[in-house]
Each structure stands twice: as C-alpha cells, then as structure tokens.
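Per reviewer request, we include the raw input and output of the structure prediction for the construct analysed in the revised manuscript.
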Amino acid sequence: MTVAGHDGFPPACQQHECDHRHGGILRPSGASLRPFAPVHLAAKAEPSGDITLTWTRRSRDPAADSWETTEVPLLDQPEAWEIDIPDGSTVKRTLTAGTATVAYSTDDQVVDWGATLAPGAALTIRVAQLSPSLGRGTPAKATLTIA
C-alpha cells in the first residue's frame, strides 16, 4: 500500500549529475500513520452465553499522553473496528464494531465451534482499528481465557 498522492522519492543522486546511481524509489507505505494496536484485550461470558470482547483504544495524537483525560482522542473517524476470530491460520469469523466492545453471540459460537464457549475456555482474537484512508491498523492478537 502506498500513501495517496505520493509517487515516491527518487534517490538523491538521480536529482543531480552523479556517476553512482543507487537503484530504487522510496515509496511511503503509510505504516507510521496507521492506527496503533489496541491494548487490554479481554473476554467475558455473559449469562446469555454471549461473550463480550473489550479492549482499550490507543491514539497517535500527542494529547493521548495526557494524565488529565480518561479517553485518548479519536483521530480516525468514525471509530470502526474489525475483530477476527481465527482458528490457526483460518479466520472463522470477522466481527465489526463502532466502539471498543463487541458481542460474540452464542449463535455465532455454535456455527464456529459446534458449541458455546464456557468460562475458562481459551479464545484467540485479533483486533484492529480501521482508518478511512489506510485501512486496518496494526492488529493486537491475544489468546484470552474467557472470564
């Protein structure tokens, strides 16, 4: 992926007369602009059998380092998340959310695993914030014990 509007930067000696041209063009990938991976991933079984998945959003905004705010500024708007439920290298399901929480329903669990997941079971998830211009941010991956 390249950053829109950037065709890349040629090596410096291609801009001047020189005998030693180094091949290649540097094309910005936008990796430093993508949303950070979230932290504090957790899974909690509800009385209904649904599993509530939660996490904490991080931000590149300098104000995110303040001790005076309880929530970091949202740079990529609208807030959007993709939550993968993998089984090895295969993604069984991708959930979407507009906040830092999502329900993994009992119906979805039965389709994915053949039964609901009980407290104490392990569940691997990958959570990534979406950027409207750059797509998925850096994902956080964790194998959680369902509380």
